[in-house]
# Entry
Amino acid sequence: MPTELEELVGFIGHDNPQIRLLAVENLVPYSTSTPSIFKVNNLEPIQELKILVADHPKIAEHALTNLINLSGDVDVLKDLATDDKFLELLFHLLTRKDEPNANLLAMLLANLAKWDGLKNILEREQDAPEGLGSDSRVVNQLMDLFVKGAEGAYNKNADYDYLSYFFADLAKHAEVRQYLVKRQAYDDVIPLTKIRVFTEHKSDVRRKGVASTLKNVAFDIPSHPAFLAEDDINILPYLLLPLAGNESYDEDEMLDMLPDLQLLPPDKQRDPDPTILQTHVETLTLLTTTRPGRELLREVKVYPLIRETHMRVDNEDLRDACDRLVQVLAREEAPEEGEGEGECEPTSRVTEIVEEDDDDERIVEV
# Structure
């Protein structure tokens, strides 16, 4: 005899929409506490949940919530991320201007990005959504959704903040890093320059995902000159401003800082999340891989900013990251010292440069 819980799972695909709704709604708690009940009969409940993503908005909402929580299971993750028809549905729904569950779709995609094969999004195409100003490439559509759709500007039901995690995890792949630093033909803009402005956004999720995207792209050493050039990607101001508080500096230090860092308002506050600050410091450390990078960071007086951050934020991991950067900046250059070439090995969202943290592999849950 099946248990009550097993019977409830069996109602996911019921013909009656009211029964389907009750089933998927009441199963949400079990998607985190008892995920094994969704893996019976070769993941049959997962297949039914995938169909319900296109059902009535309320049913779809709970189906998505279940799938978001269940995507932490590697078998479920593989099933979802390798189902081309399902991915096509997700991309289609997400880019609809009136999609009520767009934020949940973005959360699910953020989790699916942990599947390495999802980097094939670079080859995916679909009809360009009206009013988005994008082309037929899905990756460009999602980038424009994230940028133009912030705070309900494209879809009143969504802010697309979780797409920042999607791009952060995809940026672990060299092909995606190349996309992010390459000027796109349809709008003549480098994607990374679109998202850099969000390092001081009010959304913690958006700031954290963007910070990690910038860091993972910084593992591409040949792109560092473009990163640092004022007339190119020019990433330094967007890394340094979140680290700045309302401290005053000696005049000789202040005058050499980037213009964006001079004469900050008295109410300027550094980012309140120490993990985001740590990510920015680690990105700066990556930018010291080459001698020109180190010399520029010394020239624009990054050290005083790091010194104040180290002093004023009580977080051991952040202080360790600051110490590592200071050690590099304080080091005397040897004339014969070689430079790094190629790429460093990228890590997942919000990670240590040297050692990975288990928390970095966490899945978004609802």
